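task queued by scheduler; priority normal; single chain, no ligands, no partner chains; default sampling; output format set to structure tokens
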Amino acid sequence: MGKLDSKVAIVSGSGRGIGREIALKLAADGASVVVNDLDDVPAKETVACIRDAGGQAVAVVGSVIEDGFAETFVHAAVENFGGLDIIVNNAGYTWDTVIQKMTDEQWDAIFDVHLKAPFRILRAAQPVISAAVKKAVAAGEPVPCRKVVNISSVAGLGGNAGQANYAAAKAGVTGLTKTLAKEWGRYNVTVNTVAFGMIKTRLTEASADGDGTIDVAGQEIKVGVNPELLSTMERMIPLGRTGTAEEAAGAVYLLCIPESDYVSAQTLVCGGGFII
């Protein structure tokens, strides 16, 4: 018996990286998972991996910032698995530069994916959760504890040079989390944030002085971390190293299992002891 048996989870940005590991970990403990990615192939690969291990999963391919995506995402959970118990707002990327060089497009794009998209997904989920709670109460049944985990960053807690857009959006995630914890407590929903430190992903493994890019809806975005900055940060991390995607997923998992049913409106820093 898994701790998440009979639970239904949606995880945005779960075709690759940390999101994929979150989806795999939730599924391994019994949850049925709706996987999402911008691209068809990685989304289906994650679904196949879950199914091959004996779990249940479906894919919703598309951008979290598209109009109507949130409703489609939430509906997939209800249509395929009969409900919605866990929401993980993970999708995102960085588009860095110093403020004097940052364009409105860069600012808006990062705010859209990191703050507006989670807001839309949570807004779309509210009627589903409310209806499920009312149904349980009317039937005299206990209302299960549902979970929301929003993903932030240490940049959202202390800022980071070259990331005015990202740091501001991630700081906004904290406000969204604390507000929803107050609004949804009456539904027995816990709402928390995991703020990642330096985690090894395709966005951070590349060198900033290289030519690494990612494609976001046809826009080539340069990725990478300055090697000197990375070395400095690793020396500042008490554990002495960057984290893995699996370890990042573990922090999210902690806030999805029954042991955290009385933890809400909190920010858990997953950063190896690093404090800004």
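post-processing summary
- The two ends are 40 Å apart (CA to CA).
- The chain has a mean pLDDT of 94.
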